[in-house]
Amino acid sequence: MQIILLGLPGAGKGTQAKVLAERHGLLHISTGDMFRQAAAEGTDLGRRAQEFMSRGELVPDEVTIAMLLERIARPDAAAGIMLDGFPRTIRQAEALDRALGERGAQIDVVLYMQVPEALLMQRLTGRWSCPSCGAIYHELTNPPKRSRVCDRCGAALMQREDDRPETVQARLDTNRAWTEALAAYYGKQGKLREVDGTGEPGKVTARLEGALRGAGSGARGVR
Ligand code: AP5
Ligand code: MG
Ligand code: ZN
Hints:
There is one protein chain. By secondary structure, the protein is α/β, with parallel strands linked by helices. The protein has a domain of 128 residues: P-loop containing nucleotide triphosphate hydrolases (Rossmann fold, 3-Layer(aba) Sandwich), CATH 3.40.50.300. 47% of the residues lie in helices and 14% in strands. The chain contains 8 helices and 8 strands, in the order E-H-E-H-H-H-E-H-E-H-E-E-H-E-H-E. The strands form 2 sheets. Strands 2-3-1-4-7-8 form a 6-stranded parallel beta sheet, with helices on both faces. A two-stranded antiparallel sheet has the order 5-6. Strand 5 and strand 6 form a beta hairpin. The radius of gyration is 17 Å and the shape is globular. The site of zinc ion has 8 residues, from loops.
C-alpha cells in the first residue's frame, strides 16, 4: 500500500503518520524530517535545504524529487510507504506517479487532513519535538509528562526554527495553493479522501482508518 498524507503545515501529518505507518507496516517517509536530518549533519543538501526551510519556502523540486526517489527505491520501502509532506507540487506528484508506475505500483489513497488555519498557528507555535526519536508534543494539547523531556526516550525536547509565528505564516502562504492543487490532482484520479483533522488525535486516527477502509468505495468525506 502507498499512502499520501496531505495537509497544511500543522495539520497533524507527522503525528498521524507515526501511528498509521506502524499499524499498517508501512515505512513513514517525511521529506521535512529528511531535510532537517541533513541540515543537522551539515551536508551540502542540508545546507541548501535549510535556506529555504528557514524562510518558509519550498525546497526546489529537483533536489526534493531526487532525494525522495532515491529513498523509495531502497528495499525497506518495498512493503509500502506512508508519505508525509511529499508531494507538495504538481511536478513532484507527476515524478512520483512515474517512478511508481515504472515498477508496477501506484498511490492507493491520499488522505487530506483538513484543519482551520487559525488552529494551525496555535498548533505549530506550541509544538515541541524530540530530536532523538522524533516524537511530537504540544505544550497544551499533548504535553510530555516532564516539561520539555521526551516521554519515550528521555531526550531534551526542541522547538523547530520554522515554528516562529512569522515563519509559520510564510509556510501557510507558500503551501495553501499547492495543497489545493494537489487535492484537485488526486481528486481527478479518484484517490482523494477528505478527513476532518480537528479534535483529539485519537479521534483523527479513527477517521483516517475509516477513510482507509473505505478507500475505493467512492466515499469522499469522512467526518
Ligand atoms: P515539514 O516538516 O513537512 O513541515 P510542514 O508541512 O510544514 O508540516 P509540519 O511538520 O509542521 O506539520 P504536521 O502536519 O506534520 O503536524 P504535526 O503532526 O507535527 O516540512 C518543513 C519544510 O521542509 C517545508 O517548509 C519546506 O521548506 C521543506 N520541505 C519538506 N517537504 C518538501 C517538499 N516535498 N517539497 C519542497 N520542500 C519541502 O502536528 C503539529 C502540532 O500539532 C504538534 O504540536 C502536535 O502535537 C499538534 N497536534 C497534532 N494533531 C493534533 C490534534 N488532533 N489536536 C491538537 N493538536 C494536535
Ligand atoms: Mg511534520
Ligand atoms: Zn524521544
